[in-house]
Amino acid sequence: FIGVFTGSLLSFIYIMAIYDLRPRYYFRHIFAYVAVFGLVFGVPIIYFFTSREKLIESENKIRDEKIKRLSMEKDSAMISLKLLQAQIEPHFLFNTLSNVVSLMDIDVDKARQMLINVNEYLRISLQRTRQEMITLTQELDLVRQYLDIFKIRMGDRLDYEIIDRTGQPDFLFPPLVIQPLVENAIKYGLEPKVEGGQIKIDCWVEEEMLYVDVADTGAGLGADTQNAGIGINNVSKRLERIFGWKAGLVLTPNNPHGVKARIRVPL
To answer: How far apart are CA 186 and CA 199, in angstroms?
Structure first.
């Protein structure tokens, strides 16, 4: 409005100085034409800039909501991890120390070795499980330390094998994902069997996806499916929060007996 009024007024003053026109001519011709011209070109320009500002504002709101959502998901994942740590570490530590006490009267060398393994496991665990992400190699090393402790406890009843065929040892991986699956395999699969069994962890890459199999030759889940399923569900939710909907965890029978847990994570 200011542009139309100012422009038409300046035009009228310039023309009036040359042709000596009356003010009435200004309103009928100059102001009217300039006003129409201003509306024809001004309204679309105003609409364009107004729409652009609204679009920028909407994009900023979407970005802020996305950041807020990601922050909430991160906090939720960290809370889940801390709850998992609070669940695993005391339970594992108390059971292991009870076994050390029992071994002191039977086999002092085994008890000493178990204490050494527990000390090394806790040293590595306290360092790595407090991080949001570690490497796949570090996670497998932590699981290996965990299994070495149970190997002393179960003896020949436990055999394990860890295979990494990914060729990507530095692949970022969340801590305490494989270990709960190994704990389930021991607790619900191997320990109920008199003869025990084997745990095999196999990692490989196929079609831009990382796969990790945790298979046991134990008794299967059986009546403890519900209890074991709580830990499995927590792991699955953590993977989806961190890697998106393509990540997940699936349980299948490990023929001829046992359970296979398969983790899939997009590269």
So the answer is: 8
